[in-house]
UniProtKB/TrEMBL annotation, chain A:
PANTHER family in the cross-refs: 1,2-PHENYLACETYL-COA EPOXIDASE, SUBUNIT A, PHENYLACETIC ACID DEGRADATION PROTEIN PAA
Pfam families documented for this protein: PaaA_PaaC
InterPro entries named in the record: Aromatic_CoA_ox/epox, Ferritin-like, Ferritin-like_SF, PaaA, PaaA_PaaC
Molecular function, one GO term: phenylacetyl-CoA 1,2-epoxidase activity
Ranges of compositional bias, category Basic and acidic residues: 24-33
Location of region: Disordered: 1-33
Domain of life: Bacteria
Alphabetic keyword roster: Oxidoreductase
SUPFAM superfamilies, sorted: Ferritin-like
Name of the protein described by the UniProt record: Ring-1,2-phenylacetyl-CoA epoxidase subunit PaaA
EC number: 1.14.13.149
Automatic annotation (TrEMBL), chain B:
Lineage: Bacteria, Pseudomonadati, Pseudomonadota, Alphaproteobacteria, Rhodospirillales
Top-level taxon of origin: Bacteria
Protein name in the entry: Ring-1,2-phenylacetyl-CoA epoxidase subunit PaaB
Species of provenance: Azospirillum rugosum
Amino acid sequence: MYTQGLDVKSDSDRAPPADTPTGPEERFQARVDAEEKIEPRDWMPDGYRRTLIRQISQHAHSEIVGMLPEGNWITRAPTLRRKVALLAKVQDEGGHGLYLYSAAETLGASRGDLVGDLLSGKAKYSSIFNYPTLTWADIGAIGWLVDGAAIMNQVPLCRCSYGPYARAMVRICREESFHQRQGYEIMLALSRGTDAQKRMAQDALNRWWWPSLMMFGPSDAQSAHSAQSMRWKIKRFSNDELRQRFVDATVPQAEFLGLTVPDPDLAFDEATGHYRFGAIDWSEFERVLKGDGPCNRERLEARRKAWDDGAWVREAALAHARKKEARAQAAAA
Amino acid sequence: MARNEWPLFEVFIRPKNGLSHKHAGSLHAADARMALENARDVYARRGEGVSLWVVPSAAITASEPGDRESFFDPADDKVYRHPTFYDIPPEVKNI
């Protein structure tokens, strides 16, 4: 789950100039234009490599941090059925983080550096995971909305020009096909339940709707890397296009639940066949991204604690492997 | 293995651009370079691929065929990992 356009335009972070194509860059672009996949040992522009390392590692961090808000409810799931489903989902996310870190490593990034950048707060991850999971309905809303938004984002990434990323995304999308359904099933049960359960479902939708729309990243006009990423076929659709698709797919699902999307400006436009929706509060998005969301500090503390508490395991496993190797060598001598 | 025998290499071929490498077979060679050239001549004489990997067979750790059932059975009773486990009414679209 959970890739997100996170890069807001700034002066220090511009796309490389496109007006000085040299031989290898032109050949590279021609291969991309012809829908060929780029593989780790192929020549690629430095900017392409940097963009992919940033995007894939942000995506990996998002999977790992994304385990935290849902993990919060594993021990309190209302039934065994819900519990095993949630366990399986969180386990998938851990696996998806690993696939993605491995894809980033094919570009020459080191796993240690990537993890270090997350723990130091230098690297970004999807803003959505800095919101708290206050009730059980939040687990339904995350599966339905957050995974729904992630699917919109991730399906086109299966056709990304970089082979290892595209293949990882195929595997991830296949495995995730149950995530959204388990979330919607939770929402369905609550919205057909008691008044208190319905109110809980509505409250979860109220809190998760806007942060889910922000998952698609800044509007096209504000998005720092969009145009170049489209040229390189890392991205296939703009942030705003994907956001619109998500709204169009999700509003009827909310209506089926009998819930109200918390947007007074939401209206179906007969002429275009799309839903028009209200303005997104981008100041909130930037605040959360910069570290001032409701749970940013808690999430990073949890990751640092997991890393520090696991140090003895990493060291012990390595020491054990070295001891076994030394014994095998001694026996062979 | 006799001391003077060339080591065994496993050969992996990427059948076409965009696909991952797949195991094709194995061969003996004195070193990795020779293994790569021989793999081309043995396994890719008819345009079978666009990229080759050779890996020393001794470097591969494999699961035991005899342990197959017990090794893989943790996945057998987890139907909830599949989308069909969840009941979504047919009227709900795009999910």
